[in-house]
Amino acid sequence: MNAIADNRLHAAVAAPHATHKLKLLLRREFWEHRGGLLWAPVITGGIATVFALLAAIAGTVMGRRHGVHLDNHEDAQEVAKVIGAIGDGALLGGIGLAMMVLAFVVFFYSLGSLYDDRRDRSILFWKSMPVSDTQVVLSKAAWALVLAPLLALGIGVLIGLALWLITALTTTVNGVPGAGGIIVNSHPFRIIGQILLALPVQMLWSLPAVGWLMLCSAWSRRVPFLWAVMVPILACAMLSFMDIFPGVEIPHDKLWYTVVYRGLLSVAPGSWIPTISDHIPEMNGPDDLSHVLNLGMSWQVLGHADVWIGAVLGVAMIYGAIRLRRWRDDN
């Protein structure tokens, strides 16, 4: 009987599975950084929606006060296409607003991800828990690379739909010819699908910047912003200054592109677009707006060695952050 009881007790206190630990760590990251990951884009989107609503009401009131009528347009079909493009633009604007906030959130989240634990001494508590440094660092990298962009996309879609609804109501209330074009000629599912399919590209593209920021966060004893941002920029400035000496030629474009653009700014969603600007189709009409973002265009970035070299360096720097966290506790 005692043996059976011991076995049951051992089963009850058995160590949880590694995936369960990772889930708990991911929840912990959300709880501790809910303000930046969730509320920052929500509040920004709410403010933008309120301003858009006030602008729509003001425009409607002023239009009626001055007797503006738009019901005699000769080509309502063309107007419907334009209004449909405006609907696509409203949705893209909402998503773009959330993604713009995401760039700042991911940058400073990665920069403080491993430094804040040491600053407030909570690292001592987490090192006493049955979780490894690898699991802790990977949970933070997962939020910076995957979960935060997905959450921002969901919030951006809600913001875009709110702006889209305001546009639809404004055109309908004011009797704009072809107002129904915002429903018939908009492409919300195509836009959302194409942005979802572009997320893996963004993840690979932002790996070197996220890896660098996390490495500096794990290494720096204080002011990680100085080491992660100011030192590389000042180093590039000094190297560029060396160009004034005779016989010294500095490839400024490659230097600043590699260190600053790829090493720091690639956390910004869509910062890969300039690399394939030659392949972006021209806009010959309102219907072409939804084709500017397409799966084939975004995945063409993967044909550049730059992306894969940066991804390898990013993974290496995240591995370095894991190694640094094992002994860097500032005691």
What does the secondary structure layout of this molecule look like, with pairings?
Layout: H1 2-12, H2 18-32, H3 34-65, H4 76-112, H5 115-119, H6 122-128, H7 133-173, H8 181-184, H9 188-219, H10 224-241, H11 252-262, H12 289-292, H13 295-299, H14 305-327
Helix pairs in contact: 2-3, 2-7, 3-4, 3-7, 4-7, 4-9, 7-9, 7-14, 9-10, 9-14, 10-11
What does this protein look like?
With 331 residues, the protein is mainly alpha-helical. The chain is 74% helix and 0% strand. It is built from 14 helices and no strands. The chain has helices spanning 2-12, 18-32, 34-65, 76-112, 115-119, 122-128, 133-173, 181-184, 188-219, 224-241, 252-262, 289-292, 295-299, 305-327. The model has no long low-confidence stretch (mean pLDDT 84).
Structure, briefly:
This protein has 331 residues and is mainly α.
What low-confidence regions span 5 or more consecutive residues with pLDDT below 50?
none
Using the alpha-carbon principal axes, give the shape: globular
Question: How many helices in DSSP terms?
Answer: 14
Order of helices and strands: HHHHHHHHHHHHHH
Structural class: mainly alpha
CA radius of gyration is: 25 Å
Strand content: under 5%
Percent helix among the residues? Answer: over 70%
The end-to-end distance, rounded to whole angstroms, is 48 Å
Question: What is the tally of beta strands?
Answer: 0
* Mean pLDDT figure: 84
Largest sheet: none
